[in-house]
Amino acid sequence: MSKPDGFDCVDSHFHIWDLKKFQYPWPTAEEEAIYRNFSPDDLQQNLANTPIRHAVFVQCLNGTPEEAKWVISQAESHPFIKGAVAGIDLTSPQLPEVLDEMQKLPLFKGVRHILDLEQPDWITREDVHTGLKVLEDRGIPYDLLLRPPLLKYIPGIVSKFPRLKFVVDHIAKPYIKDKKIDGWKEEIAAIAKYPNVYCKLSGLVTEADWESWRNEDFQPYIDHVLGCFGVDRCMFGSDWPVCTLAKADYKRVFELLQHLLSSMTVEDKKKIFRENAAKFYKLDLN
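Structure (tokenized):
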């Protein structure tokens, strides 16, 4: 596909999985549309319909660095894979040794933990903070997968680790289906005050009505995030293939954000669709 704004784009957030290779807590058979294997070949076919030529894998399994290694091992034959965010147990006594091994892999770019599988205050625990300090000392970014009830904890955490780069996934999953913005709005603004925190413009459609969402449903949320974080700390993410639960294929998700940012200059779009993700994750786009 031609590049409407003249540059190759970066997807900061995709998933693949192999249901036989690993045991996943999600998706389950209830998520019928995505309860099957998704491979790099599947994603490559989707990228062909867009100007996206580079992408970052984000973990689906907690405490399983082998998953990121598996994805990285496929990057040579699928060069659009420019990095992997691994599921690594921050509370493990072996964390330094695990990171030593992972950091030998140039495409290891960050760490995430799925907080839905933990108690709500997990992110406040001292053993978790010990692990975050290790990441900070090594310059390894951390993806924050949040929902609105957890936002109250985040200013205290990101201020405690000012040299650690954080990115909020999926704009913290506001209640778009219910058109609820209060509460989330104020707490996102509080988090954005910290310059070490970025935000992924991703995961929008699955927080809306899966059957009847419209482009305009998302505009107030995107406008608010951009107003808080600015164009230098926001980045595009597809959240593919999870997005397909909301009847949105890869191209549709890309076009949705293009529409929501249609008033933006090409220079600012280039930051959101390319440069910010490359800077945050230290991607080699050559």
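DSSP finds nine helices and eight strands in the chain. The first strand starts at residue 9 and ends at 14.
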